[in-house]
């Protein structure tokens, strides 16, 4: 089964990275437009990612699912469905040098044509997303396309 794996170093404390990934305000600051996110006291919850005026077609895209695990400053795990079935995205956060090592792992894709396309698109997308996250957290710069 295909998997996605990315790592990036962000020169800010792990607490700041985790807060950005584990809150609606955090996602909407650097990547999405109208994300909603609720974490229950047991570390589970719900996540809806939303992009408006996305791509040259000005589409509105929404996806998301259950938050399976939210461990402050350590891990954030959620499910969404960019392909045929749900996949699981895991963010691990490790203190490293003067900042945080962010390790992203996504599983759940099958070898179907639709899932393979989604996996390729998401592999590229997560690489871009982690770069945007790094630039936002280190420099306060946000790229949002207004078409």
UniProtKB/TrEMBL annotation:
Q: Per its UniProt record, what InterPro entries does this chain match?
A: ASHA1/2-like_C, START-like_dom_sf
The record places domain Activator of Hsp90 ATPase homologue 1/2-like C-terminal at 11-138
Q: Which family does it belong to?
A: Belongs to the AHA1 family.
Q: Which protein is depicted?
A: SRPBCC domain-containing protein
- Which organism does this record belong to? Oceanobacillus luteolus
């Amino acid at each position: 089964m295909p998997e996605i794996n990315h790592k990036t170093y962000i020169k800010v404390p792990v607490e700041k990275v985790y807060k950005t990934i584990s809150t609606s305000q955090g996602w909407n600051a650097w990547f999405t437009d109208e994300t909603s996110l609720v974490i229950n006291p047991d570390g589970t919850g719900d996540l809806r990612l939303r992009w408006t005026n996305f791509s040259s077609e000005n589409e509105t895209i929404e996806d998301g699912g259950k938050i399976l695990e939210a461990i402050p400053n350590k891990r954030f795990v959620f499910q969404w469905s960019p392909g045929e079935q749900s996949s699981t995205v895991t963010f691990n956060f490790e203190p490293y040098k003067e900042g945080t090592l962010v390790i992203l792992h996504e599983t759940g894709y099958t070898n179907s044509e639709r899932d393979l396309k989604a996996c390729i698109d998401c592999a590229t997308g997560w690489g871009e997303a982690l770069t945007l996250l790094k630039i936002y957290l280190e420099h306060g710069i946000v790229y949002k396309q207004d078409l």
